[in-house]
Amino acid sequence: MRTVEYEDTLPGGRHWSMLVRRGVNLTLSDVQGGGNLAMLLYNPVNPLERLNLPDTLKCQHTFRITEGHCLYSDMGRIFCSVIHDDVGWHDAASGTCNKALVERKWGSTTYQELRNDVIRNGRDNFLIELAKYGLGKRDLAANMNWFSRVDVSADGVMQLADANSTPGAAVTLRFEMDTLVIMHSCPHPLQNAASYPRHAINFRLSLAEPLADDDACLLSREENGRGFVNTQLYALGDG
Predict the structure, then answer these.
(1) Which residues touch 60 (CB under 8 Å, ≥6 apart)?
(2) What does the alpha-carbon distance between residue 122 and residue 35 come to, in Å, rounded to a whole number?
(3) What DSSP string describes 12-56?
(4) Could you report how far apart the first and last alpha carbons of the chain are, in Å?
(5) Is the CB of residue 164 less than 8 Å from the CB of residue 87?
(6) CB-based contact 185:35 (threshold 8 Å)
(7) Where are the chain's structural domains?
(8) How far from 215 is each of 22, 54, 68, 210, 229, CA to CA, in Å?
(9) Which end of the chain is more exposed for a tag (fewer CB within 10 A), N or C?
(10) What is the largest CA-CA distance in the chain?
(11) What is the pTM of this model?
């Protein structure tokens, strides 16, 4: 276990962002179980390069994300690799909740009424964080939903699985390039709980071990080998 360099907890329904350098691990933990952590990724030098989940799923022949998988940019580079996963299934296909959806399910509140307990939605939370970096609606992309599993019935109906993530379950992302991480802890868009869910997500930063020749993410797919080469070439000469 590497030494934790920084640790904090994102309360349910909140938003946060940070620059995570290559060679750093980000460990996310579902504090109470049943949580959801939505995430977008961008190249801080060129934010036009961003998380591309269709390519991520296609090149790794999967519908879910778990240990051994990588998250790709739309330039064929790897933002991060999943090097540990207690959950086994994370949703990469459902997007995020918006104001209309949240109001339909849980009603509308104002900051003047509830202060920090105001009911928030994922899309607006993403936009608040993106604005800090000069980004906006045109920069939104398909997002990851950590700790959430979506099942699809025979007739194509998508449904959020119950109890996919237990209290304390964790997933660790090793960052392969400098990455702007945008995240929020609002409910999954398919969540149908009677009251607005507020599940806290803990996050920890630590220094990663160097990439080894037998690394599971490197070897899990032939395409990942090419992705790592693309990423290493991008960083060549950068210390």
Answers:
(1) 69, 70, 220, 221, 223, 224
(2) 14
(3) TT-EEEEEE-TTEEEEEEESSSS--EEEEEE-SS-TTSBB-HHHH
(4) 25
(5) yes
(6) yes
(7) 4-235
(8) 16, 24, 9, 10, 14
(9) C
(10) 56
(11) 0.96
Residue among 90, 88, 98, 70 nearest 177 (CA): 70
State the residue for tokens 């509308």: 108
Instruction: Name the 3-class secondary structure at 230.
Output: helix
Q: What three-state secondary structure class fits 64?
A: strand
pLDDT in tens, the chain (239 residues): 579 999 999 999 999 999 999 999 999 999 999 999 999 999 999 999 999 999 999 999 999 999 999 999 999 999 999 999 999 999 999 999 999 999 999 999 998 999 888 999 999 999 999 999 999 999 999 999 999 999 999 998 999 999 899 999 999 999 999 999 999 999 999 999 999 999 999 999 999 999 999 999 999 999 999 999 999 999 998 86
